[in-house]
Amino acid sequence: MSFMRTVPYMGVIHVVAEAAKLGFRNGHPDWCNLGQGQPEVGPLAGAPPRISELVMAASDHAYGPINGGDDLREAVAARYNRLYRKGKASQYTPDNVAIVAGGRLALSRVFAALGEIAIGYQTPDYTAYEDLLEYHQHRFRPVHCGMTEAEGFRISPERLEREVEAHQLCAFLLSNPCNPTGEVISGEDLAAYVDIGRRRDCLMIFDEFYSHYVYDLEEQSVSAASCIEDVEKDPVLLLDGLTKNFRYPGWRVGWIVGPSELIEIIGRAASAIDGGPPQPLQRAALTVLESARADQETQAVRRAFAAKRALMRRELEALGVRFPGRGGGTFYLWGSIADLPAPYNDAEAFFRAALERKVMVVPGAFFDVNPGRRRQGPSPYADWLRFSYGPPLENVELGLGRLRQMMGSAQNAVWV
């Protein structure tokens, strides 16, 4: 229909749509979704019981506050202070928090509140950024900062500062830990990122939805909140929620944390975007965020997902998939298939062959965020794949076994 614009599928949705043509449906016992963007949501060894019931209050049938209820805003602020602001003079309050119905809506709110600026973004990064950035190109200018294998798919603080200066960036968007590479910016580098934002008056937008999925740090999670000097002055927004870290993606409960002035502006912009988050799920989220329960969940997640990560990396390396960099976060592995025998050294061909065996993976080109398709030519990630160890262990093992069979049937298969 001529009155509609062409809207491409984002990466995982494309994968699911193609798999559905071959009989896939969510929960199908004979499919292995090693491309999925959500963690397993069932019971997990050592984790608190899953919340399975929701009680509605009479007030839940009415509209709630656009930036969320005070109780949950206070709980989120308290959690950040406990984990990342201990002993610091500047502390978060409920005024520093907006509750939002999911991560993409949080980004939509933030983008709607930005002025006519240049905003930097990195690649590879989260596929949904492409369309979200494209929606607002009439108002701000997206500036691409491509990461390379030689850089370990990390932007050094020195390079970040050069990019901010060269392009006069007023904002920079990144996922940390990074989806899809798993790279984690922490410690001195993370402090340097925040310092660049502070000195250059550049709004740093940290998508921290995988902040608990870190495996090489002593801390149980990572957040730029630990590097902020003044929560009211430092130009930093933090986006997170229950989706990944607490394994409740279907609840669509997320939050934005930042200076209260920015949170108020974001709330004003939200009045024309959404009607605020659902009230009963906010109340249920209070239980999820209780300190002892939340820490128990985080510890159980790290144990279970670290074991799946080690298994998947070992098995895929044995097939000849190469994993550069540290990749110490998320529940994804970002692998190069360039050394595999043809046709499996092409991400699209590998993806199609795996689908025939009821295994789903995501071609790397989907993470080549390119709003408006301004950059021409083939993607530099055409021989990269994102593998997810989000599903339960048994399903991950089944999928890896099928990939072994697929590669074993290839003539002159490479075995490391």
Description:
This protein is an alpha/beta fold. The chain is 34% helix and 12% strand. The chain contains 11 helices and 12 strands. The strands form 3 sheets. It has a 7-stranded mixed β-sheet with strand order 2-8-7-6-5-3-4, sandwiched between helices. Strand 5 (171-175), helix 6 (187-200) and strand 6 form a beta-alpha-beta unit. Helix 5 (157-167) packs parallel to helix 6 (187-200). It is globular.
Short structural summary:
By secondary structure, this protein is an alpha/beta fold.
Number of strands: 12
* Beta strand %: 5-15%
Helix content: 25-40%
Mean pLDDT: 94
- Assembly state of the chains shown: single chain
Taking the alpha carbons of the first and last residues, their distance comes to: 51 Å
Low-confidence stretches: 411-416
Q: SSE order, as H and E?
A: HEHEHEHEHEHEEEHHHEHEEEH
Largest beta sheet, briefly?
7 strands, mixed
Sheet/helix structural class: alpha/beta
